[in-house]
Design goal:
two-stranded antiparallel sheet; alpha+beta; Gyrase A, domain 2; Topoisomerase I, Chain A, domain 4; 2 domains; four-stranded antiparallel beta sheet; 6 strands
């Protein structure tokens, strides 16, 4: 039973780490990154679909994303969708491709994005602590119901705390790396 609790806790922590990485990937760093465009949807035959389903996208240099749609009539729709997004990007299009230059970030915007990254990190550390609390309660319940000994309970609680510290450190490392990317000019 304790193995199941630990396994579920580790799975929940892994999921939290992945959510943090996905969330931070969408923050602009002043460099071209395809993850920035993940949330953009384009009208395609009456339905709104993700951009990657209608075009080939690639990073072409540190500050340029090139989007080549599979159908040429999609170029104005892609251009419009990128302009309508809250990313602040101004694509340039011709008859073949859409080029999305990534503007450099101002010092003020870098500070703002760094703060957002740190807030994301705090939110995910809270999620980790909440999962820890729930796992500790489950273990304590098992001890109360005499399904495990007090020694087993204390060992497992220590393991939970060690695991929590490991994942909290991972969150801090991920956020520090992202802040470093944002601040790098």
């Amino acid at each position: 039973m304790l193995n199941v609790i630990m396994s579920e806790l580790e799975d929940e922590y892994d999921q939290t780490i992945q959510e943090l990485k996905d969330s931070l990937a969408k923050l602009r760093t002043g460099r071209a990154n395809l993850a920035m465009l993940d949330d953009i949807r384009v009208e395609y035959y009456g339905e709104y679909v993700p951009l990657e389903q209608v075009a080939n996208m690639q990073v072409s240099g540190p500050r340029l994303i090139v989007i080549q749609p599979w159908e040429k009539d999609m170029i104005p729709k892609i251009d419009k969708a990128i302009r309508a997004s809250d990313l602040g990007l101004n694509p340039n299009s011709d008859s073949e491709v859409v080029r999305v230059p990534i503007p450099a970030l101002s010092g003020e915007r870098r500070e703002e994005l760094s703060g957002i990254a740190q807030e994301e990190g705090e939110d995910h550390k809270i999620a980790i602590r909440n999962a820890r609390r729930d796992a500790r309660q489950e273990v304590e319940e098992l001890e109360k119901e005499s399904e495990i000994s007090e020694d087993q309970m204390h060992r497992t609680l220590d393991e939970i705390d060690e695991l929590t510290q490991t994942y909290t450190d991972k969150v801090e490392d991920i956020v520090d790396h992202k802040v470093e990317q944002i601040q790098d000019v």
